[in-house]
Specification:
Elements: H1 2-24, H2 26-30, E1 32-33, E2 49-54, E3 60-66, E4 73-77, E5 81-82, H3 84-87, H4 91-96, E6 100-104, H5 118-134, E7 142-147, H6 150-158, E8 165-169, H7 175-182, H8 198-201, E9 209-214, H9 223-231, E10 236-241, H10 253-266
Parallel strand pairs: 1-5, 4-6, 4-7, 7-8, 8-9, 9-10
Antiparallel strand pairs: 2-3, 3-6
Helix pairs in contact: 5-6
């Protein structure tokens, strides 16, 4: 009996230690920012102008601005890993199709100053939107595009600012819900500092929304897109990429068709 009590105590202590570790290290477990030296120069097959945005809380955000031949501009929020040295290349397909693109590195990523925080990311997004307005881009020509972790940034911005449309690639309902799926016995949503509650905000979005998800995405299962799709009551479309996983959707014809055709007709004025 005594040995069972000791075993139970050890299990409880280990469980509590695991909870503490998860709480303390949650930022490192969720975000994997790349870092770039100030002298780093970007290169791409399409020309992008390096710009620095100043946020409402005085952080300096690194961004690349690609001018297109169309009036519409894609405001792109990337995933949780890397930096603009890799993410810059997502602009190529859009620019080739005529769209302008603005893509930022969140605070704590690349050359951007500051530390990672949910509210800070929202400040970064608003600074990016304001940059486009300062460039005389009309709100009706701004299409917000969020990928993975960036869908939380995209939905928040789209729920507050006037835009032409919203694209969500591999979105989640909320970071808490996703974390609970990954670690069900540790109840991470109870102590998670990052909420990114897409499901709670999606009905505040007034523009049309396109959802894109791969059927084989095991990192963020497609059921998250399905729940968001059902919750959103406005004009919407679901693009299912058969066989696609989390990081390879641009390799599939369904995604290529989205860039070359769906973007054009779906967000067109009625």
């Amino acid at each position: 009996m005594q040995s069972l009590k000791i075993l139970a105590l050890v299990i409880i202590v280990l469980y509590v230690v695991a909870l503490v570790i998860l709480y303390v290290l949650q930022t490192r477990l969720i975000f994997y920012p790349g870092k770039l030296p100030p002298a780093f120069r970007f290169s791409s097959r399409v020309f992008g102008e390096e710009v620095v945005l100043t946020t409402a809380d005085d952080e300096r955000i690194s961004a690349l601005y690609f001018q297109g031949t169309r009036a519409e501009v894609i405001l792109y929020f990337h995933g949780n890993a890397g930096d603009l040295s890799g993410w810059q290349f997502v602009a190529e397909d859009f620019v080739t199709s005529g769209y302008g693109v603005l893509i930022i590195d969140y605070r704590g990523y690349g050359k951007s100053s500051g530390s990672i925080s949910e509210q800070g990311f929202y400040h970064d997004a608003n600074a990016a939107y304001d940059f486009l307005i300062g460039k005389k881009i009309q709100p009706d020509n701004i299409i917000i595009y969020g990928r993975s972790i960036g869908t939380g940034v995209a939905v928040d911005l789209a729920s507050k600012r006037h835009i032409k449309g919203l694209v969500l690639e591999a979105p989640y309902t909320s970071l808490g819900a996703l974390a609970n799926e990954k670690l069900p016995f540790f109840f991470p949503s109870l102590y998670l500092k990052y909420r990114f509650d897409n499901l709670g905000k999606i009905d505040q979005v007034k523009s049309p929304v396109v959802f894109i998800h791969g059927t084989e995405d095991t990192l963020i299962p497609p059921v998250h897109s399905e729940k968001l799709f059902r919750a959103f009551q406005g004009k919407k479309e679901m693009i299912v990429v058969n066989g696609g996983s989390h990081n390879d959707l641009n390799d599939y014809p369904a995604y290529r068709k989205f860039v070359s055709e769906t973007l054009l007709y779906f967000f067109a004025a009625p």
